[in-house]
Amino acid sequence: MPAPKNTFKHALANGETLIGCWLSLANSYSTEAMGSTGFDWLLIDAEHAPNDLRSLRDQLISLDASPTSPVIRVPIGETWIIKQVLDLGAQTLLVPMVESAEQARELVRACRYPPEGVRGVGYVTTRAAGFGTIPDYGKTADAEICLLIQVENRAGLEALDEILEVDGIDGVFIGPADLSADLGHMSDMMHPDMQSVIMSSLGKIAASGKAPGILSLDDGMTQKSLAAGAKFVAVGIDIVTLTNHSCALSTKWKSNL
Hints:
The termini are far apart. Helix 10 runs parallel beside helix 11. The chain has one domain (about 5-255): Alpha-Beta Barrel (TIM Barrel), CATH 3.20.20.60. The protein is α/β, with parallel strands linked by helices and about 260 residues long. Helix content is about 40%, strand content about 15%.
């Protein structure tokens, strides 16, 4: 029995456009609810949300019965955390702050078993291999891991051409918030200069044959990103949706008093 098929990875390879949502509530119950809302993928954030290994595991479990693909953003591109998250059963990872082709190659190695990589061969005890019930997991897992990396600062932009030449990277996500800050436009990703950089970067990624990704809460920017070639696009954040709707609801009724 081989490793489970990664439908997200195969959809990107087929050139499909996938719409997703960011999850920052760090809660398996809300994640399960989001899995019923029709998104193609949900990003479980371990960089800026208060997630740990157990809460990541619980959220992966909560999406098992959902057609939605889970993506986990690790807090940092270190081999040790990548090993642990893959052993939890994650098959698609997003790694923040990638700044060089050398770093990208090390991330690829972290996601693969020897001799191509450095992932520890202890899968018989892990959730990823069904706790030993997927006998061919070690031989088939590499092909089903989807590695997405974030380019989100000046150094990453300058190295983008070299990063795009690295085999084993499935997609490159442009991080508009951090990129805007690093380029001197803190909290202003809609600045014309930023929009030009973002859209040209998405186009360059698309031309390389890798899948471009973006998070956008602005409809106009989302449309521009799709036109520029973006293939995995997050259009919302759970906690932002909750607070915005709740603020509007409270204002609506308190203003009628």
